[in-house]
Specification:
The complex is a heterodimer. Chain A is of the alpha/beta class. Helix content of chain A is about 35%, strand content about 25%. Chain B contains eight helices and no strands. The chains are: A alpha/beta, B mainly alpha.
Chain lengths: ~250, ~260
């Protein structure tokens, strides 16, 4: 099932992506387009290949075959330096936040910033930039705290701030609300929405959270057995009669 | 039949490990000369490794000096060679005992620390987070640590040697009223430049091996939190074995130079 979208310019395109671990075909010809400005939610059961797909997309996993195009560049055709430059345009929010636990919040945010002198120049005082993104996620008071002093929700916000500081055009969210209580999950989802509006980013969101998908998705893909099983808006998929699709929304 | 298969599989595992370690070493040398240099992190690691290992290395060195002298003394007296005790202690500590014992202690203290730290960063996706932010985690985490161990282990060995000789002097002083000057004159008279040079050069290799194996184990850590323990443990075990092999090779090479 294909869906019409108001967005026109494709910034990420995946074609016939295959990835195998041993005898297990995790991705078996996955296809996807992300349009500029849209939020694409990818849902699927555990082990359906969602996280592998998103890791292939950012180059953390190598794919066996198929193609991945990001902003006009094919991952297979670029070298390490070009890949690192491309990664400043594509932010990644890890499920476990992945904050550097030996660094303060400020150092966590400054770390990527100071290493991209080509994009940002040599920054003498990064505090204004750090404060700006921390204010965007409502955590300016936590600038000198260590990650161990933060709650799960705060860690997720700081991780989002660390992603934002590189001014990415696309943000990839790997299960952004997993492990959080319903209220904090809602706060994170609202934050994702406000970030997208403020920074005009496009997003790919991997999630099991139906409420998150309902609120944030412009378009959804259901991933089953390594392929796109269905595609559409939340309402279209929610109203679908296929029992496999219905099963995703039974919560 | 299955026993043969197991043996083949074990040999395969060892060969794969050696191959991967060789590739890791090659990557280290490639990244070492690439900009940017993470100088601040390198200094931080030098401080952490040097400063935090100093007490352990000093205490161990001191006790080795004491014990070695106390154990050797009766036999040397029996042979009527107690005057040679400073020479014996000096040569033994400078050439062999100081470097290898200090390196083994550092393999336990520093190597396991690196393995556990990088391993936990790997399983909590912190290394992946550095990767996706377009920075080079290998350069920041691995190159700095290997460089720091390569430079700090020789310094720790020198300190340990001096403290071990001081421990030995104290035994001689209290047992035989030997003066500080006489003791160290005897030690220095028995040592030549060729005693210092090979033993100092090999400590750089020891330091390199400690950093390399610790980083390799931690950086490639698998199997979640259990893997962190395995990484730390295997870093110590494998480094210790490598240190003994390196020491043996160093002694062989030195022997060739002595015989020339």
């Amino acid at each position: 099932m294909k869906v019409a979208t108001k967005y026109t310019e494709v910034i990420i395109s995946i074609r016939d992506l295959k990835k195998k671990f041993g005898v297990n075909n995790v991705l078996d010809g996955f296809n996807m387009d992300l349009y500029e400005g849209e939020t694409l939610v990818i849902m699927g059961k555990s082990g359906s290949g969602k996280s592998v797909m998103i890791k292939c997309l950012i180059g953390l996993e190598t794919h066996d075959s198929g193609s991945i195009m990001i902003m006009g560049k094919y991952l297979d055709d670029i070298n390490d330096v070009e890949l690192n430059e491309l990664r400043t345009e594509v932010g990644f929010l890890f499920q476990g936040s992945a904050l550097y636990d030996s660094m303060t919040v400020r150092e966590n945010l400054e770390f990527p910033l100071r290493r991209h002198t080509k994009k940002f120049g040599i920054i003498k005082d990064a505090t204004p930039l750090v404060m700006e993104v921390l204010e965007s996620v409502g955590l300016s008071h936590a600038i000198d705290l260590m990650p161990e002093e933060l709650s799960g929700g705060m860690k997720r916000r700081v991780a989002l701030a660390r992603t934002l500081i590189l001014r990415p055009k696309v943000i990839l969210y790997d299960e952004p609300t997993t492990g959080l209580d319903p209220i904090t999950s809602k706060e994170i989802v609202l934050l994702m929405k406000s970030i997208q509006e403020k920074y005009h980013t496009s997003s790919i969101v991997i999630t099991h959270d139906v409420d998150c998908a309902r609120f944030i998705a412009d378009r959804m893909i259901l991933l089953v057995n390594g392929i796109n099983y269905a595609e559409g808006t939340f309402d279209e998929l929610f109203a679908h009669e296929d029992p496999n699709i219905k099963a995703f929304f039974k919560t | 039949m299955s026993e043969v298969k197991n043996k083949i599989s074990a040999i395969q595992t060892v060969l794969i490990e050696i191959g991967e370690l060789a590739y890791f070493t090659k990557r280290f040398f490639r990244e070492l000369f690439r900009r940017p240099f993470e100088f601040k992190e390198f200094l931080k690691q030098c401080y952490n490794m040097g400063n935090k290992s100093l007490l352990l290395v000093s205490v161990t060195g001191f006790i080795i000096g004491l014990v070695f002298t106390l154990q050797s003394r009766p036999k040397m007296i029996e042979l009527g060679a107690e005057a040679w005790l400073p020479s014996l202690v000096g040569i033994s500590i400078i050439r062999e005992i100081g470097p290898i014992i200090t390196a083994l202690i550092c393999a336990g203290r520093i190597g396991s620390g690196i393995g556990a730290e990088l391993g936990s960063m790997r399983v909590t996706e912190q290394i992946d987070a550095m990767d996706v932010s377009g920075t080079n985690p290998f350069k920041y985490l691995v190159v700095t640590r290997i460089m720091a161990t390569t430079l700090m282990i020789p310094l720790l060995v020198i300190i340990s040697d001096v403290i071990a000789l001081t421990g030995s002097f104290l035994v001689e002083h209290f047992k035989d009223d030997v003066s500080f000057r006489l003791f160290f004159d005897e030690v220095m008279a028995s040592l030549e430049f060729v005693d210092f040079l090979p033993s100092t050069i090999k400590t750089f290799f020891f330091g390199f091996a400690i950093g390399l194996v610790g980083c390799y184990k931690g950086y490639n850590c698998k199997h979640g939190t259990a893997g962190v323990g395995i990484a730390a443990n295997s870093a110590v075990v494998e480094t210790s074995m490598i240190l003994f092999v390196m020491d043996f090779i160093a002694v062989l090479i030195t022997d060739i130079f002595y015989s020339i």
